[in-house]
Each structure stands twice: as C-alpha cells, then as structure tokens.
Amino acid sequence: MQFEPVVGLEIHVQLATASKIFCSCSTEFGKPPNANTCPVCLGLPGALPVLNSQVPEFAAQLGLALNCDIRMDSQFARKNYFYPDLPKAYQISQFDRPICENGWLEIETESRGKSRIGITRIHMEEDAGKLIHADGSDESLVDLNRAGVPLLEIVSEPDVRSAEEAKAYMEKIHAIATTIGVSDGDMEKGHLRCDANVSLRPLGQEEFGTRTETKNLNSFRFVQQAVSYEMERQREEILDGKKIVQETRLWDSDRKVTFSMRSKEEADEYRYFPDPDLPIVRLSSELIETFRNNLPELPDAKRLRFIEEHGLSTNDAEFLSASREISEYFEKVLALEASPKLACNWIIGDLTRVMNESGKTLKDINLSPEHLADLTKFIESGEISSKIAKTIFEEMLASAKAPEVIIEEKGLKQISDEGELGRIASELLAANPEQVEQYRAGKTKVIGFFVGQMMKQTRGRGNPAVINRLLKEKLDG
Ligand code: ADP
Ligand code: MG
Ligand code: ZN
C-alpha cells in the first residue's frame, strides 16, 4: 500500500523589537533571570497591557512578503490555560481576527520541483516564560524574561508533501523574515520554532488522515528529521492495523525519535475570547501601501538576479541570497570591483567555514569588504597564488590588516620574474643531472620534482605557470 504524507507547519518567529509586546521591558537575551520584568509581564493584578506599535507593523510587512491579505482592524484574544510559565493563566494571542490571512509561499525541492504552500494565517502573540529544572533538585524555577516577547505565528495550509519540503519551507520563512528585518532569525536563541502536523493518506484518497503535531522543532534539520520519522512511524502503525491517535508529540534530538506528550482530547479547550484590555488594532490602507512599496528585494528575486547579473550557479546564488547579512556583504565586495566568482567562492568557502567554526556572525569577524575585494584582486592579477591567499586570509582575520600590508610584511608576493625564476631553474638542472637524464629519456613526470624544488626555493611564492613553462623550455631544449 502506498501512502502520501500531508504536512502543515506552524512556525513561531520572534520579532526583532527592542522592547516586549505589551510593556516597555527589554527583550535582550541572556540577562539574569527575571531582570527583564515588570508588573505587566509578571501578570500582576491591575497592570494593563499597551501594544508596542512596531509589532503589527512587522506583522503586516511579513504578511505582505508572504502574499497575505492584511486586516485593517485585527483583534487580540485571550487563550486560557494554566501553566507555571504563564503568570496570567492566559496568553494574549489572536483568534478569529488575525492580522494576516490567505497568503502563499513558493518553495523548490528536488523531489517535487516548485510548489506553492498556502499560508492560512499569521497572528501576533506574546511568548511565555521559561521553566528551569535545576540539576539534582526536584524544584522548578521560573524565569519570566521571555514572557511577553513578541512572536508571529505563521500557520500553513496542509500543502507540504515531504520532509524535504518541510525543511525548505522553514528555510524560506527564515530567509524572508531576516531579509525584511522583522526577525534576527538566530536559531541558537530559538527565534524560529516550528510545530509540524503530519498525517498519511492512501495514495489517491482525497480525505486527510488523522494527524499528530510534533512541537518545538528549533532547527531546519530537526524539522526534516522529525517529519521523516513521523511519516515512517505512522506508516508502520497503519500497516500493523493500528489507528493513528491525534496527539501532541515531542522530538528527542539525541535518540532521533518523536514521543507522545499528551493526547489531543486533554488539551485544546482554550475558551478564547476578545481581550477587553486591548483596543482593536487599526492599520490604515495608506500605511499598508507604504509597506508594500517599501519591501526590500526578497530572497527569490535576489537569487535570480545573482544568477543573471553575476553568472553564479543556482546553488551559490541560493546560498548567498538566503541571508540579508551575507548578500549585502557580497554586494559590497562586488561594488569594489572584485570578481563575482572569486568573491562568491571565498564567502561560501573559507568565510562561512570560519563563521561556523567560531559561531560568530559576519559582524563579529574582522574582514572588511575592502580587504576581501583586495585579496581577490591580488589573486586575479597573479600577484599571489591561491595557496598564499589562504595564508593571507587567515592573517587578515587574525590582525585585521589589509592584504597588501601582509604581503609586504611577510614578503609573500608571487615571483613571476622570468630572469629570477630562470636563474633558479638553471641552477637546479645543473645540480641534478640524473633527473635531467631521466626526463630526456622520456620519464617526463620528473618535471614534478623540479617544480617542487623551485617552490621550495621560492617559499611557495613562485608563479606555477611561469615555473612550468621555464622548466619545460630548459629540459626540452
Ligand atoms: P489546531 O488549531 O488544532 O492546531 P488547525 O486546524 O489550526 O488546528 O491546524 C493546525 C495545522 O495543522 C495547520 O498548519 C494545518 O495545515 C495542519 N493540518 C490540519 N489538518 C491536517 C492533517 N490532516 N494533516 C496534516 N496537517 C494538518
Ligand atoms: Mg496548533
Ligand atoms: Zn514587562
């Protein structure tokens, strides 16, 4: 029996506001527990929420980038449930009048090519606090720094058909949200969290099967792995003659399995009602039009332009356009007349490797666009070899010095001078008559020995093309 997976994703995006959604507390990460709190986000009786106006503005901008209709009079609602990280015993969210609806997003995968994923809705809400279970103690501690941090929840239609598509969808949301600047998109800090709803249906059947929801997947890889695991688990259950239970599950990233957290019947009676403490959120059509006209170039358009204007491969263009920080850096380097291909290779290769290894972002790395552009120019003109360029690159990161300074200080300039190289070559031939003999007897591979010796004598600075040509001339002649 063949099954088709049906997947719908709910993604929480943390917004890049300086203060929380309903109070003026800071959203800064890493503060001592409960340092960023006040009567409002502590849920003290009588404290009243006041909406941070940047939140609906960010929501509308993301909604426009995701082709949504923007509601001009959206409303907050209380979602009631009890949990120790939620001091008011309700979360302020939106219910029947969310700020954005009816959007879509196009993704592309190897298995299905291009597909359009419907966006059901995007709503604004506050985050909850965090429970800390201290080691060796049976107590739980509550940190409310995160309580009231603004989130957008993006709910997709059940249009995703594979684990690969689920990952591509989440990556695309990340690329768009960071490009328009509504989120910093720092995955390590949980700025993007995904709940994956997965069901199977016999191939050809219209009706959906029963779904499970796996919560809180905070990396692209986890989304892919969890959807894939859940598809396989459900397939085995069905083939075993068992029924899928609608339930909430969690992902265990160490064991790479999902496990049941609670069945759906126990949850989900939230008694939503409009929040009487907050007025209707009004956005004017003028403001919405202004946002529409001022959206920056989105990742898809940027990718196509990079291919067209700079002749990059699809994969390279995809990589560079997925992050605003990287794409802006790339374009700054190009504006300094660096070769697009070389600049692209250095950014995707060595620079990305250094960022991954050090966990630093571009901002924290000592590499100005000017220095990288200069490095590529020295390579292009043949003044340095690409091997020496690696040494210079490491030195630029360590000292933030310009490449010409490093080349000068360390004497790294490539030697292309035929007089100088020719003299070294003649000396080498004279000192190694045996190898010259072998070469002339037809064992031409021996030229490698001479090239190696020349490189040694020039400390890697000899121009390989010139060296090869000179050696050939002398050995053949
Ligand atoms: P809830 O409010 O209980 O989470 P929703 O109807 O809002 O339920 O759906 C939440 C998510 O589940 C949406 O992304 C939707 O596309 C997805 N979904 C709904 N039904 C299914 C199904 N049978 N299989 C997979 N995903 C589904
Ligand atoms: Mg849900
Ligand atoms: Zn507060």
Give your account of this protein's structure:
- The chain folds into 3 domains: 284 residues, no CATH class; 114 residues, no CATH class; 59 residues, Orthogonal Bundle (Arc Repressor Mutant, subunit A), CATH 1.10.10.410.
- The chain is 40% helix and 20% strand.
- It contains 15 helices and 16 strands.
- A 9-stranded mixed β-sheet has the order 2-6-7-10-1-11-12-13-14.
Question: Which ligands appear in the coordinates?
Answer: adenosine-5'-diphosphate, magnesium ion, zinc ion
Indicate the multimeric state: single chain
What's the shape?
elongated
How many H/I helices? 15
Spatial arrangement of strands, main beta sheet:
2-6-7-10-1-11-12-13-14
Largest sheet: 9 strands, mixed
Task: Describe this protein with a few key phrases.
477 residues; alpha+beta; Arc Repressor Mutant, subunit A; 3 domains; nine-stranded mixed beta sheet; three-stranded antiparallel beta sheet; 15 helices; 40% helix; elongated; binds adenosine-5'-diphosphate; binds magnesium ion; binds zinc ion
Describe the SSE topology:
Elements (H helix, E strand, L loop, with lengths): L2 E12 L39 H12 L3 E2 L2 E2 L2 E4 L9 E4 L6 E10 L3 E14 L3 E4 L6 E4 L6 E7 L6 H17 L12 E11 L9 E6 L2 H20 L7 E6 L4 E7 L9 E2 L6 E2 L2 H10 L4 H12 L3 H8 L2 H12 L4 H19 L10 H12 L5 H14 L3 H8 L7 H14 L1 H8 L6 H11 L6 H13 L1
Helix pairs in contact: 2-3, 5-6, 7-8, 7-9, 9-10, 12-14, 12-15, 14-15
The structure holds adenosine-5'-diphosphate, magnesium ion and zinc ion (ZN).
Zinc ion binds next to loops.
